């Protein structure tokens, strides 16, 4: 019997976060602060009343609150402050590289210029690189429940600010919005030199994972946990080395798994699938990435060796330059000894 790794050991483990919606890091206290500053009315009387809404029945029930609350984000400074706070917390939990999803269509629809969104988040990333030693970039997510023309328009706008843009992704309500709808806009993003990822197999069927691979050409699958229902698909993911960005606490809160002890993470890992551990929307789901590592240790008995493998995979599966990946793997070597 090996002793379980301590909290400090897991939090200190150098890791990359590859599945994090920056809007999902909006904690209730900052939401109220920004609402006051920007004259936006939240339909809740207090921080406590807002936090009391965080009891979700499925993905859509979460998304309704997520989009409503992000309405407080209006200025470049708001996005910078949000990102600064996330990166500080993440750094304290061992994150050394972070690839941040953002949902520009939701902000542009409220009249926020995409430049304010990208420059705010990008500015905070540049600061974190300098002050915290955390590298990173942005992944523009298309909202799959919005028309594809809107995705096309936001890609065109974002390509005027390509500096910190690593890639494109696909998120929001999954069932009924298969990846195939977005093949054209993904092809255009890849032609522009961007990486591609997509949420698939969170609530949607394993066939959406297959579509994301075959029709969007994704390099990583976000969530992807429903691959565990399909042995042939697991074998394909393992053979092709396709990483999954798994978010254990999110899956419990959105009821895609009944509880953490039933989570397929270790079944996927045992089938040879490259899994990484991430937080998704930590302000809403009860924990940042380090908290996810602690939770899978407690519920699934994840060992130090397994945690190290997940962290190494997160670094290797990131879109960081090769030299940066080597630096981060060396940091894991140092953690180990
Ligand atoms: N878990 C999730 N799934 C799909 N879209 C999202 N947007 C923010 N979080 C999401
Ligand atoms: Zn997500």
Automatic annotation (TrEMBL):
Could you state one GO biological process linked to this protein? hypoxanthine salvage
Task: Tell me which cofactor or cofactors this protein depends on.
Answer: Zn(2+)
E.C. number(s) listed in UniProt: 3.5.4.2
Superkingdom is Bacteria
Q: Where does Zn(2+) bind?
A: 19, 21, 199, 280
**Keyword Zinc attributed:** yes
- Alphabetically list the UniProt keywords: Hydrolase, Metal-binding, Nucleotide metabolism, Zinc
Task: Output the InterPro entries linked to this UniProt entry.
Answer: A_deaminase_dom (IPR001365), ADE (IPR028892), Ado/ade_deaminase (IPR006330), Metal_Hydrolase (IPR032466)
| GO CC annotation | cytosol
- What Gene Ontology terms describe what this protein does at the molecular function level? adenine deaminase activity; zinc ion binding
Where along the sequence does the record put site: Important for catalytic activity? 223
Q: Where does substrate bind?
A: 281
* Annotated NCBIfam families: aden_deam, PRK09358.1-6
Its recorded name reads Adenine deaminase
């Amino acid at each position: 019997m090996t002793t379980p790794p301590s909290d400090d050991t897991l939090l200190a483990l150098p890791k990359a976060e590859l599945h994090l919606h920056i809007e999902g890091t909006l904690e209730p206290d900052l939401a109220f602060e920004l609402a006051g500053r920007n004259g936006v009315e939240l339909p809740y009387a207090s921080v406590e009343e807002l936090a009391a809404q965080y009891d979700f029945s499925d993905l859509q029930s979460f998304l309704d609150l997520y989009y409503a609350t992000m309405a407080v984000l209006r200025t470049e400074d708001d996005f910078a402050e949000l990102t600064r706070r996330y990166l500080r917390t993440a750094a304290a939990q061992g994150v050394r590289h972070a690839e941040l999803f953002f949902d520009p269509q939701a902000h542009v629809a409220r009249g926020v210029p995409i430049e304010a969104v990208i420059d705010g988040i990008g500015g905070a990333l540049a600061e974190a690189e300098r002050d915290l030693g955390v590298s990173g970039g942005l992944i523009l997510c298309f909202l799959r429940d919005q028309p594809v023309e809107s995705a096309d328009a936001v890609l065109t706008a974002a390509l005027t600010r390509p500096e910190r843009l690593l890639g494109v992704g696909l998120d929001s309500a999954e069932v009924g919005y298969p990846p195939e709808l977005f093949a054209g806009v993904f092809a255009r993003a890849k032609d522009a030199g961007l990486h591609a990822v997509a949420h698939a197999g969170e609530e949607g069927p394993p066939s959406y994972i297959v579509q994301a691979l075959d029709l969007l050409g994704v390099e990583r699958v976000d969530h992807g946990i429903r691959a565990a229902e399909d042995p042939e698909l697991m074998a394909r993911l393992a053979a092709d080395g396709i990483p999954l960005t798994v978010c254990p606490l999110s899956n419990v809160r959105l009821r895609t798994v009944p509880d953490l002890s039933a989570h397929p993470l270790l079944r996927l890992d045992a089938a040879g699938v490259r899994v990484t551990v991430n937080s998704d929307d930590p302000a809403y789901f009860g924990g940042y990435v380090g908290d996810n590592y602690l939770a899978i240790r407690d519920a699934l008995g994840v060992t130090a060796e397994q945690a190290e493998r997940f962290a190494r995979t997160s670094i290797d599966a990131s879109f960081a330059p090769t030299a940066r990946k080597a630096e981060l793997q060396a940091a894991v070597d140092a953690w180990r000894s």
